């Protein structure tokens, strides 16, 4: 299907529309509504966006607040199963701030990636990762076209890059406005979920607090204990220190100042973080400690959230380690 190249006038209209969406509650629905309007400009069939913590490039990132348009809810979990072989995803992670494009046609893709694309009707992709200062994570967004469509053009990529930067800034403004109108407080101590419990935003302080109390928390949905609060009832007993408010069918949570103090890491998570900061890989750590590589990645995600760091150097500094200092065995 032919996809006409967007014009400067059309891009201008899109940016003006974004500004209007950002001032209209509920703030948690802003990103989804914005993607709907972008379809009129870039003619894509489906899209995926969210926040990610990329603790280790040798494994897939931890995905947070994953949302999609025209894709099933399990899309994020499906992608994580093939992430290690997805070179397009690697390019987005390796070059933040730069729009990446890719097409399946004629490429020697791994069979798992090709099967993934067939399942979801993907033939052409365009994506971008940006640093999200409000959360400390990386914000990513990917658009997809099908086999009957044209690849994304140079003009598409330029318009998408400009649009995505405006989107991220306006989303941060919308979150701040929603917090002022509701529970108040700083974005780092806040979270927003829809009535099903799916998270559309979570700040770093509240994220580390949730991890400390619900170690199995996946970062995509509120823990099941919050089911009553989602229907306008009481928060779970373990959530003492949180305030909540319902706005436009969405639950907003805010962690008080005392609860926002640093949550200490468990001994095992600290040990994994120390080994990683000293230069060991996920596989080496897993072999040494008798863990699976997936568990090591989860522990690293927890450590990055709790210590509010973004890379291995910052992790070592937060742990008070010399990069190559020896670590005594755990007893």
Characterise this structure:
It is built from 12 helices and 9 strands. It has 331 residues and is an alpha+beta fold. The protein folds into 3 domains: 8-181, Transcription factor LuxR-like, autoinducer-binding domain (Beta-Lactamase, 2-Layer Sandwich), CATH 3.30.450; 187-255, no CATH class; 267-318, Arc Repressor Mutant, subunit A (Orthogonal Bundle). It has a 5-stranded antiparallel sheet, with helices on both faces. Strands 7-6-9-8 form a 4-stranded antiparallel sheet, with helices on one face. Helix 1 (8-22) runs antiparallel to helix 2 (30-42), helix 1 (8-22) runs parallel beside helix 6 (154-181) and helix 9 (267-277) packs across helix 11 (293-307).
Order of helices and strands: HHEEHHEHEEHEEHHEEHHHH
Q: At the third CATH level, what is the topology name of the largest domain?
A: Beta-Lactamase
CATH architecture of the largest domain, by name, is: 2-Layer Sandwich
Low-confidence stretches: 322-331
**CATH superfamily (homologous) name of the largest domain:** Transcription factor LuxR-like, autoinducer-binding domain
Q: What is the makeup of the main sheet?
A: 5 strands, antiparallel
Helix-and-strand structural type: alpha+beta
CATH class of the largest domain: Alpha Beta
Biggest sheet, strands in spatial order? 2-1-5-4-3
Strand content: 15-25%
Shape: globular
Radius of gyration (Å) = 20 Å
End-to-end separation in angstroms reads 63 Å
Total domain modules:
3
**Number of contiguous helices:** 12
Mean pLDDT, nearest integer? 84
DSSP helix fraction? 40-55%
DSSP E strands, number: 9
